Amino acid sequence: MKYGFSERVKYLKSSAVRDILKVINQGNIISFAGGLPEESLFPIEAVDQAFHKAVTTNTKSLQYGETEGVKELRDLLAERMKQKGLVRQAENILVTSGSQQAIDLFSRVMFNKGDVILTENPTYLAALQVFESYETKVVAVDSDDDGMIIQDLEAKIAKFKPKCIYVVPTYSNPTGKVWSLERRLKLLELANKYHVVIFEDDPYGELQFDKEQAPPSIASLDENNLVLYTSTFSKTVVPAMRIGWIVGPYQIIRIMAQAKQASDLHTNSISQHALVHLLKDFDIDQHIQTIRDTYYERMLVMKELLDSVSIEGLSYIAPKGGMFFWVSLPKEMNTTALLDEAVKEGVAFVPGAPFYVSDAEENTLRLNFTNSSPALIREGMEKLVKVLENAKVH
Ligand code: PMP
């Protein structure tokens, strides 16, 4: 039977990370591959009580709801964002099924075939998947440790007339980088000068390790209604609730709500009502502090082991928050090839190449440190170091 798929299907790609996870889940492998939060930190009792309360006290939690999201939840989100200097009204917020849906809905209402999106290189793989599925052209901007290089950004804005600049400026996936305040302001200045919308993806902003705060979100510095900002409860409560949100110019949010209506009518009502209870009854900020402390400790264990590798030319970005180490090996080493060796040894990572828009650096890899205990990190890193050092010798 020939099923006759749409032309669009050829732009849908399977995620390299998900494919790797499938293999890893089959065996007894220590995985630094997925971007998973630590399950022992899930606030099980609080989630249980919140869902119980949602279901037993208000039948609205079981009913169809507003596409924009439960108003009480949007009010609480506005309040939480305000505490971080991002002052927006509930009507500028759309509750989504994770940030992933925010990226998809935004793309659906903004991009025509051939439209250009500027991104960092490397950047979040699943955003690239979405952008490509809408037949856009993604163009990489050069960057250094502080964010995009402004000269290259301006040159590429002038050359490509992009529709949007997509950034993950705080504890990025995959690199763990944080944009400096200066670069954030410069990005806004250019976006304003050339009338380009910025899409700020911020799932990790709350997962900081240092006392030193990351610079304010780009959205909170925006005075010209240019920034769409998305975040999520996937990393701070549980990913399975699938609650994210996007805030931005009302004209865009309104059209995105229409697209959402066509897609899934609204985000899961039980999850939204449960989250309202959770935010009221549970000290989420205290919980986030516990997550930060735990992840910080794990990051330090991984860092110590990375420091012990005797390969000249190995470098990494020490994360100040988030979930990942981004490691560069000597140029001649290929991490896609090394993954097979690593899996045979019982450890996994994600090769860096799929995160690149262009000019992939095959000698890079991403390591997650949040989903393994310190003991497992030690065991897994021992295996990984062995694989890397062996590969270097041959
Ligand atoms: N953006 C980035 C940069 C991410 O790393 C993730 C999760 N891996 C998401 C968006 C999507 O998160 P969710 O849909 O769970 O909110």
Structure description:
The protein contains 13 helices and 15 strands. With 394 residues, the protein is α/β, with parallel strands linked by helices. The protein has helices at 16-26, 44-57, 71-83, 98-110, 125-133, 150-160, 181-194, 218-221, 250-264, 269-281, 284-307, 335-345, 374-393, and strands at 30-31, 93-96, 116-119, 137-140, 143-144, 147-148, 164-167, 197-201, 227-232, 244-247, 315-317, 324-328, 347-348, 350-351, 364-368. The mean pLDDT is 95. It has a seven-stranded mixed β-sheet, with helices on both faces. 45% of the residues are buried. The structure holds 4'-deoxy-4'-aminopyridoxal-5'-phosphate (PMP). 4'-deoxy-4'-aminopyridoxal-5'-phosphate binds next to helix 4.
Short note summarizing the structure:
The protein has 394 residues and is an alpha/beta fold.
Please write out the topology.
Blueprint lengths: L15 H11 L3 E2 L12 H14 L13 H13 L9 E4 L1 H13 L5 E4 L5 H9 L3 E4 L2 E2 L2 E2 L1 H11 L3 E4 L13 H14 L2 E5 L16 H4 L5 E6 L11 E4 L2 H15 L4 H13 L2 H24 L7 E3 L6 E5 L6 H11 L1 E2 L1 E2 L12 E5 L5 H20 L1
Parallel strand pairs: 1-13, 3-4, 3-7, 7-8, 8-9
Antiparallel strand pairs: 2-10, 5-6, 9-10, 11-12, 12-15, 14-15
Helix pairs in contact: 2-10, 4-5, 4-9, 6-7, 11-13, 12-13
The structure holds 4'-deoxy-4'-aminopyridoxal-5'-phosphate (PMP).
4'-deoxy-4'-aminopyridoxal-5'-phosphate binds next to helix 4.
> Residue ranges: pLDDT <50 for 5 or more in a row?
none
Report on the biggest sheet.
7 strands, mixed
Ligand catalogue: 4'-deoxy-4'-aminopyridoxal-5'-phosphate
Roughly how many Å apart are the termini?
49 Å
User: Can you write the helix and strand succession as a string?
Assistant: HEHHEHEHEEEHEHEHEEHHHEEHEEEH
The count of helical stretches stands at: 13
Q: In percent, how helical is the residue content?
A: 40-55%
Q: Going across the biggest sheet, name each strand in turn.
A: 2-10-9-8-7-3-4
Derived from helix and strand composition plus strand pairing, the structural class reads alpha/beta
Give Rg in angstroms: 21 Å
Shape: globular
Question: What is the number of beta strands?
Answer: 15
Q: Approximately what portion of the residues adopt beta-strand conformation?
A: 5-15%
Can you give the mean pLDDT? 95
